[in-house]
UniProtKB/TrEMBL annotation:
It comes from Yoonia vestfoldensis SKA53. It comes from the Bacteria. This is Cytochrome c-type biogenesis protein CcmE. Residues 34-155 are extracellular. It is found in: Cell membrane; Membrane. Signal peptide: none annotated. GO terms for biological process: cytochrome complex assembly; protein-heme linkage. Residues 1-12 are cytoplasmic. SUPFAM superfamilies: Heme chaperone CcmE. Heme binds at residues 126, 130. Belongs to the CcmE/CycJ family.
Amino acid sequence: MSGLKNLKKRRRVQVISIAGACVAFVLVLLWFLPSDSFQFFRSPSEVAEATPMPNERFRLGGLVETGTLVRGQGQEISFAVTDGGASIPVVYAGILPDLFSEGEGVVAQGNMINGRFEAVEILAKHDETYMPTEVLDALKAQGVYVDPNGARITN
């Protein structure tokens, strides 16, 4: 009977050791990844400071700049996204969400190509007052966020 207990104990130690080794391996992989691998969202100011590679897909978020929304032929739309510090031109071919309008928050996913952001997806908001946390933080950092009650908020 004691041989069975030793076998269970040895098996338990082996399983815990293998699990620990797997966790350590994943942590080592994460440690050696480039720091920009974790940044999926960028504000217009960050994009203006360091232009991403054309093959790098990321999300650009901010406010749709007033007066920049132009509807082209078919479903092509162009506009600019700003955070108060920089403005990035965006081109999108597709159907926009119902709550998309000038002066409202937007998150677009795509690539920077030839100095403009070519979006493949425009993410919809839940309602008129919702704004993604990343966009909200970027606007507060630039000092241009105005809450729904009209008060200007900064960090």
